[in-house]
Amino acid sequence: MTLAESGITAEVVRDLLREEYPELAERHVRLGARGWDNQVWRLGDDLAVRLPWATSSADDLLRKEYTWLPGLAPLLPLPVPVPQRLAEPSARFPRPWIVTTWVPGTPADRVPVTRGAAASDALAAFLGALHRPAPDGAPAGRGRGGPLADHAEEFERQLASAAELGLVPDPDAVRAAWEDAVSAPGWTGPAMWIHGDLHPANVLTADGTICGVIDFGDLCAGDPAYDLAAAWILLPDDAVGRFHDTYEPAADAATLRRARGCAVLRALAGIHIGEAGVRGRPGGKRSWGPPAQASLRRLVATRGL
Predict the structure, then answer these.
(1) Which of these, 80, 140, 146, 217, has the minimum number of CB atoms within 10 Å of its CB?
(2) Spatial separation of the C-alpha atoms in residues 132 and 293, rounded to whole Å
(3) Mean pLDDT across the stretch 62-90?
């Protein structure tokens, strides 16, 4: 569903609230963000409405969050958007939508971390709390949380395209980091809860450190390496080692090697999305380029852990 087809406006959101949750309808409504899957409209100071608008998969992702996130949120040391209500499709809006808590902060692609020690401790505490064995029936990932080798074609395509555009100064170093990660032993522990999508636009900052995590649409059970990649993606150069020292239980060398490969994939994707933003192409986000370039530089500069 495109924006033109969905026609979501503040008045549409207000009408939906009057129909489904009239006790919330008189709150001030204003646009918060337009993401890949959902639009987020602020509802007063402490709530938000999330409505699918751009992908057919968004409906299932919202239902997943509504099902699982309220139980996980109290265990996490950082604020996350906790679903409060789920509205089913109606004649007025033919897709499900949810009301969640609003998490204050600014996405890290716009205002990056500057207090590395505080941010590494916050990220380590958050992931240490989240990474626990997932229960039976926990959702599987959308291509995340499984063997890294499953992404080999994606890696080749992304690297070739980035190199052709002159966006990667040393493709051989990037390939070396990837090949080392793919050759690492796979995850043999229980399937763990993972966020699955910890890029800078899904992590909020304030006062130079991490203050919240949003968008749990890719929440799933799998290999925690997919989340541990966030250290290279989000933290300054001098804070990555502190994160590895602080995260508990300490990740073994194989898991960190896989995490590095996950970070390479994330960085290449961010570089392409950033470049698309520079060129004014659909789906492009100019602010994604700089953090992706910085993380790739960190990854190829630190061949060891």
Answers:
(1) 140
(2) 31
(3) 97
